[in-house]
Each structure stands twice: as structure tokens, then as C-alpha cells.
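Board notes (copied after class):
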Amino acid sequence: VRLPKLTLPTFDGKVLEWTSWWEQFNADIHLNEELPDISKFSYLRSLVGGEAAQAIAGLALTSENY
């Protein structure tokens, strides 16, 4: 699947930024039925930093962990 280039913001764990970040991630990645869950998880891992990245750092890159 070839996807158009998207520019998504990074989420670093700041609660006040969660809603707008999630709405964009949800629309562009999470609800995309053409993407397998492992790809969605890969996108998720690449788009989080700070405390958010630490929260998922120990999870293996698998479909089940998404």
C-alpha cells in the first residue's frame, strides 16, 4: 500500500495536547483499514516522545501489542 506523505505531530505525553493529537492520529492511521496493526503500531512508536514513548518502550513491535 502506498500512502501519501503525511506530516503528523509528535505526542510527548502532555495531557492538554492529547485530544488534538489523537484526533489526527485516529483519522490518518488508526481508522485506516488498509494498514495492518503492526504498521499502525510502528507509526505510533515513531510519533510519540517523552513520557508517551517511555510508556510503550518495553512493548515488542507486534500486532497484538497495538
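Comment from the instructor: The longest helix spans residues 15-30. Helices lie at 15-30, 37-46, 50-56.
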